[in-house]
Design goal:
By secondary structure, the protein is of the alpha+beta class. It has two helices and eleven strands, in the order H-E-H-E-E-E-E-E-E-E-E-E-E. The protein has one domain (30-250): Lipocalin. The strands form two sheets. It has a nine-stranded mixed beta barrel with strand order 1-2-3-4-5-6-7-8-9. The protein has a two-stranded antiparallel sheet with strand order 10-11. The longest helix is centred in the first third of the chain and has 23 residues, at 2-24.
Length: 256
């Protein structure tokens, strides 16, 4: 009778170890259901500027393949922003008004984020503005007309071997990534996968034929931080505002 007992004991130990890895945030290769373990806190590899000495750095970010009628306006806005920065008068952005990044900007950093894996859902909590997005697993995507436009849209995903493939639609038109305009029909497809035990890539493809000449793909890399605890980030008592020229200013006196 010892052999069956030993087998049962080993099986129990293996299951407990996997559960402990999930609960304690360690980088076990797989969870009990066989999918990769991407739970835990992550930070952007190389920061916003890319680079760094990691051998797992993703490809450099390409410029958006905008259609000519959109490209001229986009380049003019970028040049105006550069000139304003050079004068020490930065133009107002979403941060001036305490507005979160939304999708897909929240995945670009530089603040850390946390991934929580649970049955039927993957939840991503971005430290900046306490942003939360929910990826519903193995559920059909709703028709666009049935989705209330929001900062994060509606995300559904499924595991395909070692890759979590996610589709997001329903992002508000005023939520922009890299200040690139988009139509209500914009579709975002993500492919998240571990390229090393503690290195995660998110390949993001933006498909919007109304604005882009072809799909635009950017890839972000992240490093797992086993001991990091996500901090509370609330934009309160903000002293920044935009003046009549759209320049970011700082209130120095008492606020109303």
């Amino acid at each position: 009778m010892r052999a069956p007992l030993r087998t049962a004991s080993l099986a129990c130990a293996a299951l407990c170890g996997a559960l402990a890895a999930l609960l304690c945030g360690t980088s076990a290769a797989q969870l009990p259901d066989g999918v990769p373990n991407i739970s835990g806190a992550w930070e952007r590899l190389g920061g916003l500027g890319g680079g760094g000495d990691s051998p797992h750095m993703p490809p450099r970010e390409p410029p958006p393949p905008l259609k000519p009628e959109f490209r001229a306006e986009w380049e003019a806005r970028r040049e105006a922003a550069r000139a304003a920065d050079a004068r020490g008068e930065p133009l107002a952005t979403n941060y001036t008004f305490c507005i979160p990044d939304g999708m897909p900007g929240m995945m670009s950093g530089p603040f850390p984020f946390e991934i929580l894996q649970s049955p039927g859902q993957v939840t991503i909590v971005q430290e900046a503005y306490n942003q939360i997005r929910r990826i519903y697993l193995d559920k059909p995507q709703l028709p666009l007309a049935e989705i209330e436009p929001g900062f994060y849209g509606r995300s559904v995903g499924e595991w395909r071997d070692d890759t979590l493939v996610v589709e997001t639609i329903g992002v508000r038109e005023d939520v922009r990534f890299r200040d690139v305009p988009h139509s209500p029909e914009m579709r975002i497809t993500e492919r998240l996968r571990l390229v090393a035990p503690d290195v995660l890539w998110d390949e993001i493809t933006i498909d919007d034929p109304a604005v882009l000449e072809e799909p635009w793909t950017v890839t972000f890399g992240y490093r797992r931080m086993p001991d990091y605890e996500i901090l509370e980030y609330v934009c309160e008592n903000n002293r920044e505002y935009a003046d009549e020229r759209g320049v970011t200013r700082l209130r120095t006196g008492p606020q109303d």
